[in-house]
Amino acid sequence: MNPVKPEGEAAPSNFIRDTIVRDLETNKYEGRVCTRFPPEPNGYLHIGHAKSINLNFGLAEEFGGKCNLRFDDTNPSKEETEYVESIIEDVKWLGGNFAAIYYASDYFGQLYDWAVDLIQKGKAYVCDLSAEEVRQTRGTLMEPGKESPCRNRSVEENLDLFARMKAGEFPDGSKTLRAKIDMASANLNLRDPVMYRVLRAHHHRTGDAWCIYPMYDFAHGQSDSIEKITHSICTLEFEDHRPLYDWYIEQLGIYHPQQIEFDRLNVTYTLLSKRKLLALVQRGLVSGWNDPRMPTISGMRRRGYTSEAIRNLCRNIGVSKTNGTTELSLLEYYVRDHLNRTSQRVMAVLRPLKVVIDNYPEGQVEMMEAINNPEDESAGTRQVPFSRELYIEQDDFREDPPKQYFRLSPGREVRLRYGYFVTCTSVVKNDAGEVIEVHCTYDPATRGGNAPDGRKVKSTIHWVSAAHAVDAEVRLYETLFAKEDPSDVPEGQDFTVNLNPNSLEVVRNAKVEPSLKGAAAGSRYQFERLGYFCVDTDPGLVFNRTVGLKDTWAKIEAKTK
Ligand code: ATP
Ligand code: MG
């Protein structure tokens, strides 16, 4: 389990950092550090990307270098400008201070010239096999692949065919340009990988200028090279691609960045695959990419997570060379930890029960002083109206209290936070026998919450004044998936079988204190005794529950000690 480190502590050392330190010592890149964050604009960023952002921008900042934001937009059929815009917004929100924005598509011309260069060097050939035939002749880990019948085409023929591929003479999928490496290589990625394919698809930036597009492997390293990246940090699944990354750059004889791999972030109860997240959006199973249940940066922001909390998680989990899974409760720990220190406390009642204080003067309103944030004195205080008729939480009253129940019940005295001691004297029920109103008396000597005679009460409950309360809708969230590992799908079924049917509960008639009237979207609060809530962007006063107060992390921590 990951140890919890306080915010602000220097990033723990790791093998990537050590490599950079060593390279600086040996002056490998003339003392430069240049990283990049290279998302493909085919979806919104998720919490996994935050780890990569934190690492790339964090290392650049720590060593006085720079980090580029580069869109890896070589796959036009899936990419859109909407995604580009959301990615820029999310990277900025996470604190990523990019030196410049680049697009792999800006390098299409250069990449084409480099492909021609490899053909001229006898290192690439045009192949007539279909994608399926390329796959079939690739061999396996046990068996070598079969050489393409086109492998020994002359340089002249290859140059001519490649130019005609570019000119649009061949239908989609009918030809590829392949690197001539080794069909018997132990690394399958080196068995004459495809460099270019014919694809007539409108590109979000280059439009219809191209009908051939480079493959990821042929574009990525060279893009790094063009930008003079020093350390090209990527996830572990690219480890097997590193020999190919190096091969292209060596054959071309161009500047050589260093690829370093780290472990992907996985989180319990969460799927971090853009393809699957897109499916949820397209099938209407969530309200959009920024649905507060989504593990996207925009979803988390809308839900009330702070970028500080996400950064603290990323800093704390560090990097390693083996993939693992991080507990969702650890992320929630960081969210709570930050919100506890920064958010304004308010009183809100989700499921209201009317309380009438019979001996409180009718028409009287007292302003009670309430503390905005006990963790931050500078947050000051506010005035909360108290009156004869209040709402409390239905859960805070029991007609027949169980043994360990110390909140309000007939004959029992409790403290109303910032108010008075009240004692329940009677209840009013509806025809169904449900309590719809509770009557109390109050002790005027206990104003502010303490009895002069020193008598104690066992419970303090929150409330809002009925006449002053503001109506609100509150959305309560549980995990989007019911299974700890949502990718564990029974054979023949779709991953959506693991969706949690109770991931959203809408409470429509909550009552909140008057200071929340007109609260701006994005404002974060702690509803006393209930949890952290954030104002949604939907019209009307709508709150998203960011996270409850219960600290499951503390329990886990105790167990692992
Ligand atoms: P997905 O499978 O969700 O589509 P991806 O790796 O294809 O993810 P990219 O847009 O290509 O998404 O990723 C941009 C960068 O973010 C890459 O360097 C990638 O390695 C990194 N990244 C993506 N997902 C994670 C993750 N779960 N943990 C850490 N880094 C990640
Ligand atoms: Mg990708």
What does this structure look like?
Strand 17 (421-429) and strand 18 (435-443) form a beta hairpin. This protein has helices at residues 15-25, 47-62, 81-93, 108-120, 131-136, 155-166, 216-226, 242-252, 274-282, 297-303, 307-317, 328-342, 552-560; strands at residues 34-37, 66-71, 101-103, 124-127, 176-179, 194-198, 212-214, 231-235, 258-262, 344-346, 348-349, 352-357, 366-371, 381-386, 389-393, 413-416, 421-429, 435-443, 460-461, 464-465, 470-477, 504-512, 524-527, 531-535, 542-548. Mean pLDDT is 95; it is low at 1-8. With 561 residues, the chain is an alpha/beta fold. It has 13 helices and 25 strands. Helix content is 26%, strand content 22%. Helix 2 crosses helix 11, helix 7 (216-226) packs across helix 8 (242-252) and helix 11 crosses helix 12. The strands form six sheets. The chain has a seven-stranded mixed beta sheet with strand order 10-23-24-25-21-22-11. The protein has a seven-stranded mixed beta sheet with strand order 19-16-17-18-12-15-20, with no helix packed on it. The protein has a four-stranded antiparallel beta sheet with strand order 4-5-6-7. The termini are close together. It folds into three domains: 15-262, 3-Layer(aba) Sandwich (Rossmann fold), CATH 3.40.50.620; 266-303 and 473-512 and 518-561, Ribosomal Protein L25, Chain P; 348-469, Ribosomal Protein L25, Chain P, CATH 2.40.240.10. The longest helix is centred in the N-terminal third of the chain and has 16 residues, at 47-62. The protein binds adenosine-5'-triphosphate and magnesium ion. Adenosine-5'-triphosphate (ATP) is lined by residues 38-40, 48-49, 51-52, 72, 234-235, 264-265, 272-274.
